[in-house]
Amino acid sequence: MVDLKSQYEKIKPEIDNAISEVVNSTAFINGAAVKEFQTSLENYLNVKHVIPCANGTDALQISMMALGLKPGDEVIAPSFTFIATAEVIALLGLTPVLVDVDPETFNISPNSIVKAITPKTKAIVPVHLFGQTADMDAIMGIAKKNNLFVIEDACQSIGSEYLQADGNWRKSGTMADVGCTSFFPSKNLGCFGDGGAIFTNNDALAAKIRVIVNHGMTVRYYHDEVGVNSRLDSIQAAVLKVKLKYLDSYTQARQQLANAYNSAFAAHPEIIIPIKSNKSTHVFHQYTLQVKGGKRNHLQDYLASKQIPAMIYYPVPIHLQKAYLNPRYKQGDFPVTEQLINTVISLPMHTEMDDVQLAYITSSVLRFFEKK
Ligand SMILES: *Cc1c(COP(=O)(O)O)cnc(C)c1O
User: Fold this and answer.
1) Which end of the chain has fewer surrounding CB within 10 Å, N or C?
2) Top mutation candidate among 2, 91, 156 for ligand 1, by most atoms within 8 Å of CB
3) Which domain holds residue 125?
4) Could you tell me the distance, in angstroms and rounded to a whole number, from the CA of residue 371 to the centre of ligand 1?
5) Separation of 58 CA from ligand 1 center, angstroms?
6) CA-to-CA distance for 283 and 190, rounded, in angstroms?
7) Residue 76 and residue 94: Cα distance in Å, rounded?
8) What is the CA radius of gyration of the chain?
């Protein structure tokens, strides 16, 4: 699905140098590289505060802690997402309230959010799934009207841009109270282990988040809040600082690959290519097709027999996951999500694909549909 080895080889001297600088300094935790990367990312995103942390899941959890969400508070999230989004809500004793997604962008549906709001609702977590930004103007409007916090899950969308109603383009993760991202190796900006970050333009919230990520410590060994231990280590920060310089070129490579896939599949009657939101750029964390006629699993098996990996993100929606079963929900509650789990398939998507690989993948997909 990804080719991290070839990507590394192209920038190996720079990366190796950055890593050995950290090793030589022995400042493995909170070294200079962490602050440098933080500043570079603040500039890239045009956001006031970036707070690095250990991973994207922590970023979400810490955001909810910093916003003061309390057990029993309801948090609205999409039913079609990676589990981490709902997991941290449940772990904090908050109540996940799931809603359906938009059939075109796969992102949380603003109309469904409105219907799910109750007096207990405190926050909304839009997930910018597969690399497109959810409809932030609509979501922020709903939040403002109902006095709710918004936490953007931008783990799959770093670099994606959204056209706000005021005519300004804003980077995903920077439009709400707080935004979260992940630097897991296969994410669009990936490090060589685990990593994550929290974004906010709110000074007071940033200060609180910095305390929470560091054991709730204000002055050394004085703990004013219950915190966690969640750090981005210096080696990961050094790697990320190098890779951030290439992020836009990586995004372009992904978009070019998506265009090539689109041209191969657009006319096919049994395939629906990714539908672009008219308000967001797409950074193609995943390139996800919908397959008609109940043939999706057969296509996946066929591609596997041709040594082509293709993945189902996600085969089970949150409301039907064993750990999250809840009398509140039943099968059929989220028709769009429940249709998508049976039709979506993601093809290999990364920055290093060559023309031979591309031709092999597209012709294999098309040949599958010719077989009767
Ligand atoms: C990857 C991901 C996360 C979690 O990130 P980790 O760094 O793996 O903890 C959360 N939400 C979404 C949508 C993701 O894709």
Assistant:
1) C
2) 156
3) 4-99+106-244
4) 37
5) 9
6) 14
7) 10
8) 21
What CATH number has the domain bearing residue 71? 3.40.640.10
Q: Are 254 and 351 in contact (CB under 8 A)?
A: yes
The total of structural domains in the chain comes to: 2
pLDDT tops 80 at residue 164: yes
- Residues 226 and 283 placed together within one structural domain of the fold: no
- Is any atom of ligand 1 closer than 6 Å to the C-beta of 188? no
Q: Are residues 287 and 302 in the same domain?
A: yes
Cα 359 to ligand 1 centroid, rounded to whole Å = 31
**Could you tell me if 321 and 256 lie in one domain?**
yes
152 and 184 inside one domain: yes
Show which of 244, 279, 306 is a domain's final residue: 244
Alpha carbon nearest to ligand 1 atom 5, residue: 56
pLDDT digits (tens, 9 = 90+) for 68-125: 999 999 999 999 999 999 999 999 999 999 999 999 999 999 999 999 999 999 999 9
Q: Is there a single domain that holds both residue 160 and residue 21?
A: yes
Residue 299 pLDDT exceeds 80 = yes
Question: Is 41 touching ligand 1 by the criterion CB < 6 Å?
Answer: no
Q: How many residues does the chain have?
A: 372
Statement to judge: residues 240 and 296 lie in one domain: no
pLDDT band at 372 (very low <50, low <70, confident <90, very high): low
- Residue 29 region, left (φ>0) first, then alpha (ψ -120 to 50), else beta? beta
Q: How far apart are CA 129 and CA 215, in angstroms?
A: 31
- In this structure, the answer to whether residues 223 and 256 fall within a common structural domain is no
Q: Quick one: DSSP state of residue 321?
A: S
Query: Which CATH number does the domain housing residue 336 bear?
Result: 3.90.1150.10
186 and 288 share one domain = no
Q: Which domain-ending residue is among 191, 213, 244?
A: 244
Confidence of residue 254 (pLDDT cuts 50, 70, 90): very high
Of all residues in the chain, what percent carry a pLDDT higher than 70?
Answer: 100
**C-beta 81 within 6 A of ligand 1:** yes
- Ligand 1 centroid distance, CA of 68 (Å): 22
Which tens digit of pLDDT belongs to each residue from 2-17? 999 999 999 999 999 9
The finding on whether 52 has its CB within 6 A of some atom of ligand 1 is: no
Q: What is the pTM of this model?
A: 0.97
pLDDT of residue 330: 86
- Taking the centre of ligand 1 as the mean of its atom positions, its distance from the CA of residue 254, in whole angstroms, is 19
